[in-house]
Specification:
Blueprint (H helix, E strand, L loop, with lengths): L2 H13 L2 H13 L7 E8 L7 E8 L3 H6 L6 E4 L1 E3 L2 E3 L14 H20 L6 E5 L5
Parallel strand pairs: 1-6
Antiparallel strand pairs: 1-2, 2-3, 4-5
Helix pairs in contact: 1-4, 2-4
């Protein structure tokens, strides 16, 4: 699979989850604790660079556990996992030695664009927001 093909498949997959992610942002906004000072949206690819990743909302402020517990049901905007032996959603799973590009870097790049879209569509949370990616090479 080429970088362009991987990009297109991942963009299409995330696009299919846009409305559910927007709905979750609205729910978080409705349950946002007063003490939340900012929000980080983390893009968390696996260390193995195999294509598995999640996109999660992290509230920042005093007592992180309490803040994030308040939004626990809605903070996972996207997650690739195995359910009953099947990959859900069906994203390409590749080994880093099978491609000539960094899978995690591309996941983070594409996901940042997706987060910008859901943030624009939802109006955000009315507190400062940041997006970060884990396990990148650059």
């Amino acid at each position: 699979m080429t970088e362009i093909e991987y990009r297109e498949v991942l963009q299409d997959t995330l696009k299919g989850y846009t409305q559910s992610a927007v709905d979750m942002i609205f729910k978080i906004k409705a349950n946002l604790p007063e003490k939340a000072k900012s929000v980080d949206i983390g893009i968390h690819p696996n260390q193995d660079e195999d294509g598995m990743f999640s996109v999660m909302v992290h509230l920042c402020g005093p007592d992180l556990y309490v803040l994030n517990k308040a939004i626990a049901d809605d903070r996972l905007l996207f997650d690739v996992k195995y359910i009953g032996g099947k990959l859900y959603p069906n994203v390409p799973i590749l080994g880093p030695d099978e491609v000539s590009f960094s899978i995690n870097d591309l996941i983070v790049e594409i996901s940042i664009d997706w987060v910008k879209t859901i943030w624009d569509l939802s109006g955000g949370l009315k507190i400062p927001g940041y997006v970060f990616g884990d396990e990148c090479t650059s």
